[in-house]
Amino acid sequence: MRKLEEMTTHALPAALAEIVDDFQALTEPERLQLLLEFSRELPELPDRLKNHPELLEQVVECQSPLFLTIEMEKDEAGPADTVRLFFKAPPEAPTTRGFAGVLLEGLDGLTAEEILAVPDDMPELLGLTRAITPLRMRGMTAMLGRIKRKVAANARLRSKTAAP
User: Fold this and answer.
1) Model confidence pLDDT, tens digit, residues 30-50
2) Distance CA 9, CA 3 (A)
3) Which of 103, 109, 95, 113 is nearest to 144 (CA)?
4) Residue 85: how many other CB atoms lie within 10 Å
5) What share of the chain is helix, strand, coil (3-state, %, to 5)?
6) CA–CA separation, 113 and 23 (whole Å)
7) Domains of the chain by start residue, with CATH
8) What is the pLDDT of residues 80-137, one digit of tens each?
9) DSSP state of 45
10) N vs C: which end of the chain shows fewer Cβ within 10 Å?
């Protein structure tokens, strides 16, 4: 197993790398506090999604109920569309909400290519593996995997419809 100090953030998008650096700079108890801060900052779903649970996909690997969806947004300034992320998790699930908050802040607004390039083991870089149960760590890994799967499926669909 790799040690936290040996892991680097060079393969991560800038915002996510900054979050990982913030976690790595802290002691384990401080990391849990930072995760709670991300939990508190997770925004509510926009009105267009609140009353449409069929538009959200549950991440069943999470111990607490967590639902997510993505939307592609046309980027007028660049050639690639950006990915918007949306999460729904109950307030009484701070760890799950915290993980969702980390992914939202670190990935929202990136291109599909940037998100798909994020290493699957990125959650381990947060240095929470001793403080959080393995089941909860698997939940965060599953959230990232679900986001990447949805982004990849959306990108494939878009490339098929854009082809002449």
Assistant:
1) 999 999 999 999 999 999 999
2) 13
3) 103
4) 22
5) 55, 10, 35
6) 25
7) 12-159 (3.90.1010.10)
8) 789 999 999 999 999 999 999 999 999 999 999 999 999 999 999 999 988 888 888 9
9) P
10) C
DSSP SS3 for 79: coil
Q: In whole angstroms, what separates CA 44 from the centre of its chain?
A: 15
Using pLDDT thresholds of 50, 70 and 90, give the confidence band for residue 6. very low
Q: Which amino acid is at 35?
A: L
- Token readout for 31 is 């990391």
Q: Which residues have C-beta within 8 Å of that of residue 117, sequence separation ≥ 6?
A: 11, 13
